[in-house]
User: What shape does this take?
Amino acid sequence: MNLPEKISASIRMNVAKRKLDSRKIKTIHGNQLEQWGVAKIKKDIGKDKELKKRFDGQDLDRDDIKAYKLLKLKELMDYASENSPFYKELYAKEGLESSQINTYEDLAKIPLTEQDQLASHPYHFLCVSRKEIAREFTSSGTTNMLKRVAYTQGELLEIVDSVISGLKMAGMGSNEDTLQIMYPTITATWDPGLVLSRACDLAGFRSVINDSVDAQSQINTIKEHGTTVIIGTSSFIYDFSVAANKIENLMDLGIKKIICSSEPLTETMKMVIESVWGCKAVRQWGMTELGLANAIECEGQDGLHVNNPDFLIEVIDPKTGEILPPGKEGELVVTTLRRRCMPLIRYRTRDISAIYDGSCNCGAILDQRIMNVKRMED
Assistant: This one.
């Protein structure tokens, strides 16, 4: 890279840093992901005349957050009805308008979005011109259906912002911390390692990528780089932990948190990982079509904290579509409240979980939490 290119890259990096609300979270107390979410919501309120009239100048409580999300959903329905060929046709066929959605019970009036609909006609969901697309990703996720989704540059930066907040909540809070990124296989047209390393660069954290399946190689990297936090797929981290424990005492390596993502983490796997490393293994859940990073456990491990400003989460009976109350297990249904490129409204994830609707022992009182996610059996 020549000097002009280096200067240009440095300018882009500094501009991106200034846009990240996660960098402004300095406190080590409470839940950093919730704090970031509240800051995003308050910023959103300040920029919207109707939201400002409804919420400005008051401390937000849980009911306010729910009311905010309902208003954002109605706004999104209007936007999608105007700009998305898929939702425009669907809502016209149903005779559905946002004015009919005034309570959470009214969500049942909105048709569910099926995965095969996105897989069959991805660009029917597109709400912006093709020239505004910064990246497109393709993933099969937990199904065999290839689903293509697109993001603008601004949306990619929002994803990075939420990733940084999640990492802070998981324990990345010091210049002395190093995140070791272990994704030995790429299951989509995006590299999670590059996304995470980019997030660390913007946050001022250190990171190192090692995609080797060799346990000794990973151990050497931990020692060389002073790794303090590990992230990778649940199955890989489990297999690596078992193999590495036969080589040396892993508790001596100074790992303070392990983040298990992309796949369900069973209690047995979690117990083994935590016992050999001597630290907590927290779960992370996300889907490519929903923005990659959607929920993560805190230190208290009492459910996964949802990326609050970006998603409205429901749980339904997968057979009947009935909306289930908090605490009742069913299929997760997600609405992407802030997406403008390819928004998804009441999107069926084919993942099973339940909503925790209450405060967490980490101090979070405003965000939604979901229990450990399981894959739906066909």
Q: What stands out?
A: The chain is about 35% helix and 20% strand.
